[in-house]
Amino acid sequence: MKVPEHLAKPLLEQLEDQETSEDCLVIRGSALGYAILDNIDKRDECINKFIESSEPELSGNQLARELQARAVGKILLGKSADELLTRAKEIFEIELEKALPDLPEDLAIDVATEPLRNARQARSGLMENAFLAKEWALCMSEGEHGRSIIPDYLLYQPHREGYPIEFVAKGIHTEDMEMAIKGVEMQDEFLNYVIEVGYLKPWEETYFTSYAISLISRKLLD
Predict the structure, then answer these.
(1) 3-state helix, strand, coil in the chain (%, to 5)
(2) Could you tell me the residue ranges of all domains in the chain?
(3) Which burial class, exposed, middle or buried, applies to 145 when counting CB atoms under 10 A from its CB (0-12, 13-18, 19+)?
(4) Quick one: CA dihedral 155, 158, 161, 167, positive or negative?
(5) Are 208 and 69 in contact, with CB atoms under 8 Å apart?
């Protein structure tokens, strides 16, 4: 995961401009920005700031995602994240339970209903949560369930047979390191792709968890 050379200078300028922000989302975006600039000291400084900040007033999947992001921040700093992961899991499960009865019969509709969006977000969150908790079998199961409610045309093409963390989880679970390596390589390819096409804006925090999972996955191979 590397920022293109022509974007490095404007990214650094953006990060310097938001240095004094107290907004936890902005701070987390700064952590991601410094991470892909390979400034680990500044990354960790920003991580410490956002995990120590007050939790924003969110609910549902948004709150679960916030708790999960704080959990991965703690994991990157070598701290226990069990409590945050447990809270996030409980919320994702509640949101999924609420959404499932109202899913449309046609899951390939062009505009997803709110229950369908919520179910997809909850399934994705549960998959990532299981991975972060090193519950490999559960991670694989949640990934499969998650893909079952997303039509292929909405998925990044390499993910249609499985998400990267599914391959990593299965590889670790079955001691198949070639499969785990494949998952890590898929993660790197995806993150590089979203940087190159402009989806990943390192001054925003959207891909912080994806970045962290990629890093955690690579460490599992050591």
Answers:
(1) 75, 0, 25
(2) 5-220
(3) middle
(4) negative
(5) yes
Asked if pLDDT for residue 4 goes beyond 90, the answer is no
Length of the chain: 222
Please give the structure tokens belonging to residue 28.
């987390």
Q: What is the mean pLDDT of residues 21-29?
A: 92
Going from the C-alpha of 120 to that of each of 4, 22, 109, 114, 167, the distances in angstroms are 31, 31, 14, 10, 19
Residue type, 20: T
The pTM of this model reads 0.91
Task: Using alpha carbons, select from 136, 124, 43 the residue that is nearest to residue 88.
Answer: 124
Give 143's Cβ-side CA count (13 Å radius).
22
